[in-house]
Amino acid sequence: MLKASKNGWALSLLPILMLAALTAEAEPVPKLSVDKALPEKSISQAFTLDQAIDYAVANNPDLKIAIERISQANAQLGVALSAFYPQVTARMSYEHSNNPAQVFSMIVSQRDFGANSIQNINNPGYRQNFRPEIIGKLSLFRGGQDYQASKAAELGIDAAEFERASVHNALIEAVTSSYYAYLAAQEAHKVAQDSISAVTSELKQTKLKYDAGTVLKSDVLSLEVQLAEAQNAEIRTANSIELAKTSIANLLGLSSDQAFTVAPSSLPLTPPKLKASFSDLLELAMVQRPEVKAAAKQVEIAQLKLKSEQGAYLPKADAYVSYGQNSQSPGFSSNKDNVTAGVMVEMDLFSGFNTRQRVSAAERKAVEARETERKIQLTIEQEVKMAFLKLEEALARLQVTEASVLAADEAFRLVTEERRAEVVTVTRYIESEVARNKAQANTIAAHYDALSAEAALKKAIGDWN
């Protein structure tokens, strides 16, 4: 097993932690209730990487939001399909008037017209009319607008599904990177603690030798400087552990005050490998990435909405039926009921340029959707290229650091023998030990960097949909 590190590489953890933290939306993480969300034992458990991923998939608020958007898209489809069903309305109206024309209409509608009704037609006096009725309406044709809107709503469900897959893909990569960052920070902290122990022990012995007059004051001061550096590294690595754990908690959908631990994990025996060329990976990404599929659906949706707006130039036809009664009292009598049925056709001749502007806006939306699709493809190409190069770099660094460990171990062995023979200074001995620890730490960091780079490449090609 490799020992852990000192301080130099602790800063390299910060970009990983920041990337993982920024993956989640910058909105407050809801505080879960133990009795309403999950049992206490599941919150205080030690998460392995697989368990952390499963928990995040079940509880991350970003993924829950994406799932709710699928439900919203289903509801939008229901709204669009409602245009193909009859619309039924019940209403009650009351009128009171002495207008001759209206009073005459009331008399006829109430079926009270008689021979004497015409005599007082100019001065009929006041009369009232109660009319309860039920009205049914069915759209027969709206220039294809309803059909195009329903098809766009169906594609909206597909687009929402792809957006959920995109969030799922990014979430797994973020959890994986945060998990490795946490383990790497722990290794760095162990190295810092080992360095403190080693320097402290050597400092005590050197002070005794200085008191005995066998070493110089400069040796004591050099060790004190080394101790301060090791303590500084210990502080920074301890903070890196907390930062990584906070990032993991955010991705798991836990508040910062909820207790959980990260299960220790040993490094894989074999490092990751590049199994395909960049061109093959890019082609795979264009097929698998949900963002590409969602953008293609948005282009189709924009085209359907454009056709829907163009349908406003065509005539519209509606069928309707009304059943009710007219009476001077609120009571209902089938002897005074009235039924009206018909078909109405209308067409906008001039709408103040409203239709033209709506069509123009839909055309611009269609162009925007196509450009957005192209932008997403370019972004994914860049992402795959960067992930590919970073994995190549991480694997190369891993080979170099593994070679450096052998050299550092041999150098430390030789310096230790020279130290026993008292032919080297204590400062040289400590520098050799620090160099060995740093080489070992760099190897561990490079291994975790390679694993994180592999996770980023899997996300770039859409392996975690």
Strand order of the largest sheet: 2-3-5-6
CATH topology: Outer membrane efflux proteins (OEP)
Q: Please give the CATH architecture.
A: Up-down Bundle
Taken as a percent bin, the fraction of beta residues is 5-15%
CATH superfamily placement: Outer membrane efflux proteins (OEP)
Shape, principal axes of CA atoms: elongated
* Proportion of residues in helical segments: 55-70%
Radius of gyration, Cα only, in angstroms? 38 Å
What is the overall pLDDT average? 85
Structural class: alpha+beta
**Can you count the beta strands?**
6
Biggest β-sheet: count, sense, barrel? 4 strands, antiparallel
Q: Count the DSSP helices.
A: 11
Residue runs with pLDDT of under 50 for 5 or more positions: 1-42
SSE order: HHEHHEHEHHEHHEEHH
List keywords for this structure.
single chain; 465 residues; alpha+beta; Outer membrane efflux proteins (OEP); four-stranded antiparallel β-sheet; two-stranded parallel ribbon; 11 helices; 11% strand; disordered N terminus
Task: Outline the fold blueprint.
Elements lengths: L12 H11 L16 H4 L2 E2 L1 H11 L1 H21 L5 E11 L2 H10 L17 E15 L3 H67 L5 H36 L8 E2 L15 H11 L1 H21 L5 E10 L11 E10 L7 H67 L5 H36 L4
Parallel strand pairs: 1-4
Antiparallel strand pairs: 2-3, 3-5, 5-6
In short:
By secondary structure, the chain is an alpha+beta fold.
Would you give an account of this structure?
The structure is a single chain. The chain has 465 residues and is α+β, with helices and mostly antiparallel strands. The protein has one domain: Outer membrane efflux proteins (OEP) (Up-down Bundle), CATH 1.20.1600. The protein is 63% helix and 11% strand. The chain has 11 helices and 6 strands. It has helices spanning 13-23, 40-43, 49-59, 61-81, 100-109, 145-211, 217-252, 278-288, 290-310, 354-420, 426-461; strands at residues 46-47, 87-97, 127-141, 261-262, 316-325, 337-346. The strands form 2 sheets. The protein has a 4-stranded antiparallel beta sheet. Helix 1 (13-23) packs antiparallel against helix 6. It starts with 12 loop residues before the first helix and ends with a helix. Residues 1-42 have low confidence and may be disordered.
